[in-house]
Fold this protein.
Amino acid sequence: MPYPLAVDILLVQPEIPHNTGCAARLAAATGVALHLVEPLGFSLEDRYLKRAGLDYWPQVELHVHPDWAAALGALAAGSSRAVASRLKLFSARGGQVLFDVEFRPDDVLVFGSESSGLPGELLVAHADARVYVPIRPGVRSLNLANVVCLSLYTALVSAKLPLAANRGDYVAHPRAAEDVRPIQRARRSRADRG
C-alpha cells in the first residue's frame, strides 16, 4: 500500500532490464511508484525484467511515459508543490551529496540511463536539484539499481516517512502465485500535446 505522499522513483530511458526489475522490486517493498520514461532499452515483456522483479509485480505501481514532458505532467497531478521543485536529479558528476540533501515526502528521485546518465539539458535546467553519491577517484559510477536503493531509503528516512514494518517474517502477497508480467502492470501516460 503506497504512502499518502510518497517519494517517487523515475528512471529516464533505462537500458538494462535487470536494473529496472530491481527498482520495481524495491518499489514493491517500499510502497512507492516507479516511473519509466521511454525509450526503454528493453521490452516490458522481457523475461529478465520479470525475473529481477520476481513475483512482486502485482504490488508494483508502474507508470510508463513516452517522454519527459508526459512524465512531468503525470507527476504534477500528485502534489500541491510544483513538480520542478520536487525533482532530485541523480548524477555521478556533481551536485549536493546525497546524505546532505533534505528530502520531502513528495520528492521525485530521477535517474538516467546506465550508459549515459541523465540528458545534459535536464542537468542544466535543474542544476540546483543535482544529487550524487560519493565515490572514490578512479571509479566512474555505481550500478543504477544500487544507487536507486540507497537513495530511496535515504530519502524516506530524511522525509520522515514510515518504513515498512518487517520483523523478518514473510507472508506471500495474495497474487504472488499469479504469472503477472510487467507489461500488465504498466499504466501508460500520453505524450504532451501542448
About this structure: Residues 144-158 form the longest helix (15 residues). Helices lie at 17-30, 47-52, 68-76, 83-86, 120-125, 144-158, 182-185. The two ends are 33 Å apart (CA to CA).
